[in-house]
Specification:
This protein is mainly α and about 150 residues long. The chain contains six helices and no strands. The chain is globular. It has one domain.
Length: about 150
């Protein structure tokens, strides 16, 4: 199968399941996303152990708090952790790994602030923030996939 088609399916599913988990049933995000990701990784040739470790980490990360009652000292690292799961499949590309952690934490923090600002909510609806989070999770894996 063409890996690029798998990347597209991974990104679409990640965006959809993250947003769906925010709208309806949290397990869509917390469990559905890692299960789908496991099949993506194994389909692309990542061994089952490393796929399970990456997706188990993602599952744990998706249980961390980031809402309005969470202080920024916790929220910022939570956003950064959304790009940590690929650590099990990095294979020497540590710069790309670090860059994605930085991109994810900064973009999600700025988008979170915008979604909570009365003057900027028309640009950054909460659902857009959720879809951005889902996109960044999936995108953080792609540089490390075949």
């Amino acid at each position: 199968m063409n890996p690029e088609l798998v990347y597209i399916a991974w990104v679409m599913a990640s965006v959809g399941l993250f947003a769906l988990g925010g709208t309806t049933w949290k397990p869509w995000r917390r469990y559905g996303l890692p299960v789908f990701g496991f099949f993506v990784l194994t389909n692309l040739g990542v061994d089952s152990l490393h796929s399970a470790l990456a997706m188990g980490t993602l599952c744990g990360v998706l249980h961390l708090p980031y809402g309005d009652k969470t202080v920024w000292a916790v929220r910022f690292p939570v956003f950064a952790s959304y790009s940590v799961a690929p650590v099990f499949i990095v294979k020497g590309r540590w710069l790309e790994f670090a860059v994605w952690i930085g991109i994810t934490s900064v973009l999600l923090s700025l988008a979170f602030l915008a979604s909570r600002n009365a003057k900027l909510q028309w640009v950054m609806k909460w659902k857009v923030w959720e879809m951005l989070a889902g996109f960044l999770i999936a995108a953080s894996f792609i540089p490390h996939l075949p």
